[in-house]
Design brief:
The structure holds three protein chains of three kinds. By secondary structure, chain B is mainly α. Helix content of chain B is 80%, strand content 0%. Classes of the chains: A mainly alpha, B mainly alpha, C alpha/beta.
């Protein structure tokens, strides 16, 4: 069996169950197993979702950058489909970060938004890949737009460390509203660490499953279009 | 690469389109700011005004380096030639940089005149700081500006593509300018300049490597 | 220089080109020997220009393999030996004819760009307007300049896209003369054209493209015009059973 077929088998049959099971375990840990954080109380539990959404988003964007590089140098629509799927899934998680962030911030800091370095960076990243999605939806089947999208994804990811550093420096100049213990309070209780790891596993599996489904959707869409085109031609 | 640069500069000298359009546009943007700002705030807002003007006027200037390749299809003439596509990128980027550097001088002068911003005793530091920012801007904008060389309508996409990626440049250049305008030397803006320099190197190299794949149909 | 010696100039196997979802060339298999002259006929939209551009390295085939001058890549060494005469002059309107030719001569690495440029200005009878900007040129003058631009670096493979369209009689004769000289020098020529008479006069072989496919191929002989006529009629009628 080819690698593709083997991957498809695992993705279709094993992944959904694994992801569901892991997510249920994670939910159990987050709400039942992990203790209340001393300073923040119950609200702190969002942390397990917030942080993992962020990591999943990053994972998505890195995969997109890699697939984009492959597409630019080796071509082939599979690489492009993977890149698009990765950006779409990454954006989903990125949006979740921007939603869970304020939900967490409100009770802790009393404000919905703050120019905290990490949130700021996430907004910028979100914008970069939102532009990617806009670009691809405008370009549809145009190969040139696909190439520019690939370059955007690639340099977008290259830009990430630079954005992080400059935003951090910038925040250093303008002290934030409250010096927040967001994720910095340290995970004192080992149960928190366990919960975090379980949640991480759950989110990675979820990411992989969503990525697979999006990729398959895009692949099938293109295959259908090819068949449509051949039918049109045969008729003409 | 020098061949192309020479050709572009010769063209610019002949027509003087880019520089004049750029200067006029910058003047207009600055005038708008003059009406928006209270003179007392001017000094603190100056670096921001500087960079907003640079970015919007600069994007149009960068578009032009590829616009000149559209008439008579000379872009294909360049692609047909054995010239390395990375070299085409560097040539276009350098051409843009030269135009932007000249524009910077004019803009700083206008800033001093219109907004009454006091120039530091060592204006060279200001040029260096902004120059570093312009290198990064040039690299990024040149890379994406090639989008409009085939289809004019795609010009509108350029700001969308460039602005989010440009954030580190804008932050660092503005803050570094602020330091210099407040009387500090270039060394005081050290951290900002290091980031700018890194950005410049990364994006110039990235552009040089990527251009070939980008323009090959 | 014997014809057909060494690697073929162009070797296309199953070449296809699509732009997005629009296929323009489908499954073209064609070999052109060194020193051969090929005339490419076909209606508008048949894919003639696309085929020429593929051979010029401007496009990458979406399927199939294409070898140019014995090489698989499309790098500078290959591009140096190919010249394309297109619909547009590919010259800068605000520079003079001489400046344009010098620029391209330099871009192709010619040893004496200025003298090469002047020589070609002479050959296409544009010496007296050499210093005027291309912007003011008439269509005929522009086409002569386009020819010079494409040949200034003495390419081995010459691609011409509708070269006779819009040329006056004098310019057309000039072109015939240049093409004859190129043939004597053993260079390979591909010309896409609607002008059957002129095309056949210059070619060894002729092909017909129709909707991206290679529909007909033959050596040029006395019976070729009649055969071409038959092919054109056949292709114009909708496909029978």
């Amino acid at each position: 069996m080819s690698l593709r077929a083997r991957l498809a088998l695992v993705a279709e049959h094993v992944l959904p169950f694994a992801a569901t099971a892991a997510m249920l375990a994670a939910l159990g840990c987050v709400f039942l197993y992990a203790p209340n954080e001393r300073m923040q109380g119950a609200v702190q539990r969002i942390f397990y979702f917030h942080v993992n959404c962020a990591w999943s988003a990053f994972l998505g964007f890195f995969v997109a950058a890699g697939a984009s590089a492959w597409y630019l140098w080796r071509g082939g629509e599979t690489a492009d489909q993977l890149a698009q799927a990765a950006v779409q899934v990454g954006m989903l998680f990125c949006t979740m970060v921007l939603v869970t962030g304020p939900i967490w911030a409100r009770p802790i800091w009393g404000t919905w938004w703050t120019w905290d370095p990490r949130l700021t960076m996430t907004v910028i990243l979100w914008t970069i890949f939102a532009v990617y999605l806009v670009l691809r939806s405008m370009g549809r089947d145009d190969a040139e737009i696909a190439r520019y999208g690939a370059v955007l994804a690639l340099v977008g990811v290259l830009d990430i460390p630079l954005i992080m550093v400059s935003v951090r420096l910038w925040r250093g100049m303008h002290p934030s509203v409250i010096s927040a213990p967001k994720g910095q309070g340290g995970l004192e209780d080992p149960r928190m660490v366990v919960t975090l790891l379980v949640a991480l596993a759950a989110f990675v599996l979820l990411f992989l499953w969503l990525l697979w489904r999006r990729f398959e959707t895009l692949r099938l869409r293109d295959a259908i279009r090819r068949v449509e085109d051949r039918v049109m031609e045969a008729r003409a | 690469m020098w061949t192309i640069l020479q050709k572009d500069l010769l063209l610019e000298l002949r027509t003087r389109e880019a520089l004049s359009a750029l200067v006029v546009l910058m003047l207009l943007i600055l005038l708008t700011f003059t009406f928006a700002f209270d003179p007392a705030e001017a000094a603190t807002a100056a670096p921001a005004v500087l960079w907003v003007t640079f970015v919007f006027a600069g994007l149009l200037a960068v578009q032009r380096t590829f616009l000149i390749e559209r008439e008579n299809g000379s872009w294909y003439g360049l692609l047909l030639s054995p010239i390395d596509r990375g070299a085409i990128f560097v040539a276009k980027m350098t051409g843009n940089l030269i135009v932007l550097a000249i524009a910077q001088v004019v803009l700083l002068a206008l800033l001093a005149l219109l907004l009454g911003v006091e120039m530091p005793r060592a204006p060279l530091a200001l040029f260096v700081v902004n120059g570093l920012g312009l290198v990064g801007f040039s690299a990024l904008a040149t890379l994406f500006a090639a989008l409009s060389v085939r289809l004019r309508a795609r010009e509108m996409l350029l700001p969308l593509l460039v602005l989010p990626l440009l954030v580190p440049v804008v932050i660092c250049a503005v803050e570094a300018s602020r330091v210099v305008l407040a009387g500090g030397g270039a060394a005081d803006a050290g951290a900002w300049l290091r980031v700018l320099a890194t950005f410049d190197v990364i994006f110039t190299v990235a552009g040089w490597l990527l251009f070939e794949q980008l323009v090959q149909e | 220089m014997s014809r057909g010696a060494g690697e073929p100039a162009v070797e296309a196997v199953g070449v296809a080109k699509a732009f997005g979802r629009t296929p323009v060339l489908r499954d073209v298999t064609l070999t052109i020997a060194r020193g051969e002259a090929l005339a490419i006929f076909g209606p508008n939209g048949a894919g003639k220009s696309t085929l020429l551009r593929l051979c010029a390295t401007l496009y990458r085939p979406t399927a199939g393999t294409l070898r140019l001058l014995g090489r698989d890549d499309r790098g500078p060494d290959v591009r140096r030996r190919i010249g394309l005469v297109s619909h547009q002059s590919l010259c800068y309107p605000d520079l003079s004819a001489r400046e344009n030719l010098t620029f391209f001569a330099r871009a192709y690495g010619a040893p004496n760009p200025e003298s090469v440029a002047d020589a070609w200005l002479d050959r296409v009878a544009l010496t007296d307007v050499g210093a005027r900007p291309v912007r003011v040129f008439s269509r005929g003058m522009e086409q002569r300049l386009a020819l010079a631009r494409a040949l200034v670096h003495a390419p081995d493979l010459i691609l011409l896209d509708e070269p006779w369209t819009g040329l006056d009689a004098a310019a057309a004769d000039l072109l015939q003369g240049i093409l004859a000289a190129l043939r004597r020098e053993g260079r390979t020529i591909l010309a896409a054209t609607h002008d059957v008479a002129r095309g056949l006069a210059v070619a060894d072989r002729a092909i017909v493209l129709h909707r991206g496919r290679l529909e007909w191929e033959s050596a040029v002989g006395a019976d070729t015009p009649a055969a071409l006529d038959a092919v054109t009629r056949r292709l114009r009628t909708p496909a029978a059973a």
